[in-house]
Amino acid sequence: MRRRALLAAATLAPALPAFAQGGSWVADRPVSLVVPFLAGGSTDIAGRVLAERMAPHLGPNARMIVENRAGAGGAVGSEWVRQRPADGYTLLLGTASSHATNPAALPSQMPYDPVGDFTPIAVVGGGPLVVVVPAASPHRTIADLVAAVRARPGALSWATSGVGGVGHLTGEYLKIEVGRMEAEHVPYRGGSAVMEALAKGEVAYSFEVLASSAPHLRDGLSRGLAVTSKERHPLFPNMPTLHETVAPGFDVTTWNVLLAPRGLPAPVLAALNAAANAALAEGPVRERLAAAGVDPSPATTPEATRAFLHGELAKFRGIVQRAELRLGR
Questions:
Q1: Residue 170 and residue 82: Cα distance in Å, rounded?
Q2: Amino acid 81: pLDDT
Q3: Mean pLDDT (whole number) for 151-164
Q4: How many structural domains compose the chain?
Q5: Which of 93, 41, 40 has its CA nearest to residue 65?
Q6: For residue range 7-23, what is the model confidence (pLDDT) as tens digits?
Q7: Average pLDDT over residues 20-44
Q8: Torsion-angle region of 71 (φ positive above 0: left; ψ -120 to 50: alpha; else: beta)
Q9: What are the tens digits of pLDDT across the range 225-254?
Q10: Domain shared by 60 and 97, yes or no
């Protein structure tokens, strides 16, 4: 998803809560929003901001509770939600890893269909990844890094937060686009472990989600060489894009989508979609998400959200095919 689309002004800004706009479903008990990753990451931040402001639009006494069910690149939490009743009281904040890259790279290990087993509700937001190097790295630009990898095939290592994740496939995509980049992929258990490895100089570079890497970049523990979106990001306006430097046309972002189990009744789906869009239209919500590195989405329909998921899944399947990856097959 391109940043300009995510930053476009949302069109829904109701004066009344969504449930007062004519919706027929009101939440009369707590709604669980499952975040399939550990607390503290960008997905968790987005989930907590969304839950706080969606609840008032679901009923006068509605509450939303965030549950962290981490594991297997988001698959554990996603599978748990898939098995819950489709009644509107259990939702999932799906990600590019749980619903695109892992299903594309590790299809035999996925217990669910990333689109068919869920009811898409709304796109929440997203943002680019960053090519990150240790603070003491001799590579000052992305062109320097590419040249160094090419000069010593297989000698340098690069880290990601897991095999088949969005960082892994983005790195493979760059190798395809620039050519002659041979480096050892070292998967870690989560983004925090990757950033620690970078700070210690254990690896030469990584592809990390902007929202997770921003604090380290600001503190000088690591350096960002380029973002993976086609446009520069306002949090780091001086950081170039891969598109404008070494890989014209390069455009990959991570994202969050709100999902429910398959078979959600139409009135419930309409109420949840209206509530999500209403929350995302609020200025303070957009500001809090943007400050965390998550570009909030404009209003989306369930149909557009489903089409978005299909498009992203197809894109990452294409990357897997072009890179000739054979992971877990």
A1: 27
A2: 98
A3: 93
A4: 2
A5: 93
A6: 443 333 344 555 545 45
A7: 84
A8: left
A9: 999 999 999 999 999 999 999 999 999 999
A10: yes
Residue 234 contacts by C-beta under 8 Å, 6 or more apart in sequence? 290
Question: In this predicted structure, what is the pLDDT of residue 5?
Answer: 45
- Cα 281 to the center of its chain, rounded Å: 20
Answer whether 273's CB lies under 8 Å from 122's CB.
Answer: yes
Outline where 55-165 has alpha helix (H). 75-82, 96, 102-105, 142-151
Residue with tokens 């557009």: 304
- Coil, strand or helix at 133: strand
Closest among 71, 61, 12, 7 to 38, alpha carbons compared: 71
Are 177 and 206 contacting, i.e. CB atoms less than 8 angstroms apart? no
pLDDT, residue 289, reads 92
* 154 within 8 A of 184, measured Cβ to Cβ: yes
Residues 264 and 219 in one domain: no
**213's tokens:** 């890497």
Please state, in angstroms and rounded to a whole number, the distance separating the CA atoms of residues 173 and 170.
Answer: 5
- Which pLDDT does position 328 carry in this prediction? 60
Q: Residue 18 has what pLDDT?
A: 58
Consecutive H or E run containing 190:
none
Same-domain status, 147 and 212: yes
- In a domain, residue 286? The reply is yes
State the Rg of the chain over Cα.
19
Q: Which residue in the block uniquely carries the two structure tokens 């306002």?
A: 234
Identify whether 104 is part of a domain: yes
Q: Give the structural domain span for 82.
A: 3-126+254-323
